[in-house]
Amino acid sequence: MALFTDIDARISALRDLFGDDVEIDDLSSRMMAFSGDKLVEAVTAVSALVRCVERVGIVGAGITAARSTRQAGRDGLAAGRGHRTPAALVQDITGLTHADAQRQVRIGLSILDSEAAEDAGGHDGASSPSVGTPSAGTSRARVPWHTPLATAMLSGQISVSQQDAIQGGLGHPIDDTDHTHDVWSAAAEQLAAEARERTVEELRIQARAIRDQLDPEGAERRFTERYNRRSFRTWVDADGRECGRIEFEDDGAAWMRAIRDAALRPRRGGPRFVDSAEAKRAEDLTADQRTNDQLSYDLLIDLLRAGALADAKDVFGGRQPGVRVVKVHDGSGVPVSARTEDYGFSVPLASADQRICESGTVNVTVDVRGNPLDVGRESRLFTTAQRVALAIRDGGCRWRGCDRPASYCEAHHIDEWAADDGRTDIERGILLCRHHHMQLHHGGWRITRHGSDDFHLHPPGGKHPVTLRPRVALTAAWAGIDPPPKRFREDAA
């Protein structure tokens, strides 16, 4: 659909919802009268309209930057209007933050680069290979690796924020060979295809995880750089308040998240507690009048006070925090990568080996799709080892659009234990956060799976099921992106 035809269609949909016109002073009262379905329809139509119009602004920001180069000097578009940079001009026009204006310029320029290469007869590679699958290649004229993202954004498949998260997370390819270009492009395509099912924050994490798998040497270097930047400093501000700032390295950040999550998980939507004492502690925490930030601060101070003599149950109840690292081995048993169980952050193998010395290992064997082996109908509840295996396979809540990590999730049997002779094995289990687990049981939803294929979420009322695809970073970790996803456009002639 042509751009302005699409915009007209979106405006027409809004007119159908609101009537011919509405005074701005009546907007709130008019929408308050909407039913739930009509309200969602209106917000969806507005979001689609904003995306349509935003594309014009993004391309305009790119052209503004292209006409404001240093070579143009004072004759450049931005300098000629009294602005030091094109982002400053965009910010002045739009009222955006400086960071958002820079993002518009950055993405606009990437779109222009892709279109210029295509207009010059560039190619995007002979074929789109699996991520991590080696193939020889030599440099040739081609479109930029991020062209699938520009195409997806301009077609409305992904938003500007999603494109920026994916492109920034994947970073720059490690070299200029055809193979590297094609692999990065394949990863961009796959992440763009998954964007509808992931939050922007998780897309960024997934893109970074894939980048570290594609560039292990760079991952090691970035790990070391973050370690060398670790710092903690305090200062007194003008009002006499003692302030502090911490820049974490990866291991410290993982521990801090684990400590915070263990203490605040009941309040932030973590799994329900079976033990009555734990349930009471969770209720007390939920009713606590302190904000989450205040609770986090008090927790940190308590830990500092207690130090090495702290009794874990006094601070955390029955769920002591910890950071579990998963090592991935190839068919011969050689370790090829490692990552944290929660959030899936990449960990250098040397750091993983150090963690093993401290805490040991849990061995989980998986197939090429990341499915752990069947362990049978042993008990009503999933064991600790089974939950680790589910965390490795699912990476967190599998509900579409949810980014809750594995530690916030409960293991759900897709077969009812008594009625369906449900088996407590991982093939028939799936991780869901507490909110979505309760929604499943009380809202008429159900999940099905045929063998080791994808899970399918069936909405109430017989609506079309939704495929709960695995996170793409995990797919790349186990078997790469194979076969490659369908292209957005054919190779240029």
Give an overview in words.
The longest helix has 31 residues, at 36-66. The protein has helices spanning 3-18, 27-32, 36-66, 86-94, 98-119, 147-154, 160-170, 178-194, 200-214, 216-228, 250-264, 276-287, 292-306, 312-316, 349-359, 384-394, 434-442, 472-478; strands at residues 231-236, 242-247, 325-329, 335-340, 409-413, 429-433, 446-449, 455-458, 466-468. It folds into three domains: 3-213, no CATH class; 231-316, no CATH class; 384-469, no CATH class. Residues 126-140, 314-320, 374-380 and 480-493 have low confidence and may be disordered. Helix 6 (147-154) packs antiparallel against helix 7 and helix 7 packs antiparallel against helix 8 (178-194). With 493 residues, the chain is mainly alpha-helical. Keywords: Endonuclease, Hydrolase, Nuclease.
Structural key phrases:
493 residues, mainly alpha, 3 domains, 3-stranded antiparallel β-sheet, two-stranded antiparallel sheet, 18 helices, 9 strands, 9% strand, disordered C terminus
Short structural summary:
The protein has 493 residues and is mainly alpha-helical.
